[in-house]
Amino acid sequence: MGDQNKNLILATALSFMVILVWFLLFPPEQQAMDPAADGAVAQQAGGVAPAPPAGLDGTPLPPDAPEAVAAEMPRIPIETPRLKGSISLQGGRIDDLLLKDYRETTAPDSEIVRLLEPVGGRSAYYALYGWSPSGALGYEDVPDASTEWSLISGETLAPGQPVVLGWENDSGLTFTRRIEVDENYLFTITDGVQNAGDSAVRMTPYGIVARHGRPDTVDFFILHEGVVQMSDGSLNESKYKRMVEYPVIERERARATITEVATNGWIGFTDKYWMTTLIPTPGQPFTAVSKYVPGAEIYQTETRMPAVTVEPGQAAEVQNMLFAGAKEWETIRAYQNNLGIDRFIDSIDWGWFFFLTKPIFAVLHWLHGFIGNMGWSIIALTLLLKAVLFPLAYKSYVSMARMKELQPEMEKIKERAGDDRQKLQQEMMTLYREKKVNPAAGCLPILLQIPIFFSLYKVIFVTIELRHAPWIGWIDDLSAPDPSSIFNLFGLLPWAAPEPTSFLALIFIGVMPIALGVSMWLQQKLNPAPTDPTQKMIFAWMPWVFMFMLGSFASGLVLYWIANNMITFTQQYIIMRSHGHKPDLFGNIAAGFRRNKPAAK
After folding, report:
1. Pairing between β-strand 75-79 and β-strand 298-304 as defined by DSSP bridges
2. Nearest to residue 72, comparing CAs of 120, 25, 1, 115?
3. 584: which residues sit within 8 A by CB, 6+ positions away?
4. What count of Cα atoms within 13 Å lies in the side-chain half-sphere of residue 416?
5. 3-state class of 256 per DSSP?
6. Are residues 61 and 70 in contact, defined by beta-carbon separation less than 8 angstroms?
7. Is 82 left (phi over 0), alpha (psi -120 to 50) or beta?
8. Which of 215, 242, 265, 367 is the most buried (most CB within 10 A)?
9. With contact defined as beta carbons under 8 Å apart, do 584 and 527 qualify?
10. What is the rounded (10 degree) CA torsion for 484, 489, 492, 493?
11. Which percentage of the chain shows pLDDT scores above 70?
12. pTM of the model
């Protein structure tokens, strides 16, 4: 391998390290909704649906309906193959929801993941639907957050077993709410009103998802947590800290952004693995609102539908959907395809390299369907990626082999040029042209590995399919670092390993990071060490620097890197043999340990 080629490979590897450090020290800003643009929309009162009345925008309940009452109100159980919880008859809130398929930790007795929580709990998180009055109607004429609904039909909300709630005011209006749920995570809410009065009434239906207090977040720069919104094909994201900086809109009594959606969209809150999203019927225009209520510290998203006029003796109804559950790729994609929910799959945070992360995960999911184990699926994915890149890798290895053949001629050029760097460069370039060798060809596969590495890191970090996914033995969560540690001799000593989040975990690494370092070291030993002392030292330290640098990364990512190194090692060995160059692996290893003898006098 020529000195220029070695320098380029070294620069590429060091650049990779710099990129990692740069991303950790200077995280990029997430895309956020434009407050200036939304503020301008908010000034157009005629084009913005009215805000829900007090008590419906997430603010605390009025004195005559304290939070304690909300906890004591009758509830309707929710029981599906994947969900359990209840609906409060006060306000008709969907505010108690647990995900039966997921636990907080990998321990078998760990608690089931709770998604929604009633008002009065540690951190209230709920969905609420209703009507905003206009004209002659007052707030007392429509159901609000403190309304006590009656159960008209149904006993337990389950797939194929809807429940219907009812409430009647003193002005001849009868309100109904039909709630349905499927076998996964989609609720369908149909709000209806029957006008038995003497005059027409006009109302605006709405939906709300509210969170009381700032929720606990992972707060990592490559992950978006907060508002996620699709508006006519445009995806907007806003973190919780960004919501606090929204422009003040007096008519909203809050900081808010308002977006008019013409045909298709949705809005809600996304966590790392879970999501609660309001989904108006596709094709229906609506107003999307993202709001922060100061003082009460309430984060809220809303959908406000076009106003409805109900004549005497007539009825009207509006239907909306609510997604509340895990961000499973297959489930969300099915909702997108079957229900026409625009780009619903983008509720999963695919990141900047979405053009790579999406197909990479799709292939990984497909492989998992055949293999049934995510660890072996990652190895199979690595094989496929290496097969796709093999033509480039082959040219790279051939170029490296030809560079090795030119080594004697290159040494002669160095002797002739001496200290004349310009002459050296000119003669080197002439030699490359005559022999038709590209010294940079060996670096192309390495450059391609960088975006693939980041894309796979993103996939493993954000997709729930990798959460708590086991591989073999002690690796019971491919989304978490290797739990083994040198600190306790990988479990042989009677004390626990350092916590993954502690500084000691960066030093006392596990089995897989060590295997990563060894695989990189073996790959280097296919070629003799560089003659330049500086290059030799850097190349000698590089595998062990990467070993500690990637030791705290997810096990799935380390597994990919180990598999990639071993496949690359095999490919390079075979290609070198096919070109008449038998790699002296053991000789190169021995040379690395052999000390230079002092020169004889």
Report:
1. unpaired
2. 120
3. 528
4. 13
5. strand
6. yes
7. alpha
8. 265
9. no
10. -110
11. 78
12. 0.82
DSSP state, residue 453: H
CA dist 495 and 562 (Å) reads 28
H-state helical runs in 347-443: 354-371, 374-388, 390-405, 407-417, 421-435
Q: Among 141, 149, 131, which residue's Cα sits nearest to residue 94?
A: 149
Distance CA 332, CA 334 (A): 5
pLDDT tens digits along 414-473: 778 777 778 778 877 887 777 777 766 666 666 777 888 888 889 999 999 999 999 998
Bridging pattern class, strands 226-231 and 265-270:
antiparallel
Tokens 């609506």 label which residue?
286
pLDDT score of 64 more than 70: no
Quickly name the fold that domain 30-349 has: Beta-galactosidase; Chain A, domain 5 (2.70.98)
| Dist CA 349 CA 329 (whole Å) | 11
Tell me if 535 sits within 8 A of 6, measured CB to CB: yes
Q: Which of 281-285, 385-389, 559-563 has the lowest mean pLDDT?
A: 385-389
- Give the whole-angstrom CA distance, residue 130 versus residue 142: 8
* Residue carrying structure tokens 């999203």: 277
- 441 within 8 A of 393, measured Cβ to Cβ: no
How far is the C-alpha of 441 from the C-alpha of 328, rounded, in Å?
A: 40
Give the whole-angstrom CA distance, residue 525 versus residue 209: 58
pLDDT for the residue numbered 100: 97
**Cα-to-chain-centroid distance, residue 258:** 25
SS3 516: helix
Sort strands 298-304 and 254-261 into parallel, antiparallel or unpaired. Answer: unpaired
Residue at 196: amino acid letter: A
Query: DSSP characters for 308-345?
Result: EEE-TT-EEEEEEEEEEEE--HHHHHHHHHHH--TTGG
Beta strands in 136-225 (DSSP E): 150-153, 163-168, 173-181, 186-195, 201-212
Whole-angstrom Cα distance, residue 593 to residue 113?
53
**First and final C-alpha spacing in the chain:** 33
CA gap 219, 217 in Å, rounded: 5
What does the block give as tokens for 497? 């390993």
Which pair of tokens denotes residue 496?
């626990």
Instruction: In whole angstroms, give the CA distance from residue 399 to residue 393.
Output: 10
Any idea which residue has 């002439």 for tokens? 430
Task: Return the residue matching tokens 């000195």.
Answer: 3
Kindly report the length of the chain.
601
Domain ranges of the chain: 30-349, 359-593
The contacts of residue 593 (CB under 8 Å, 6+ apart) are: none
Contacts of 328 (CB under 8 A, 6+ apart): 184, 464, 465
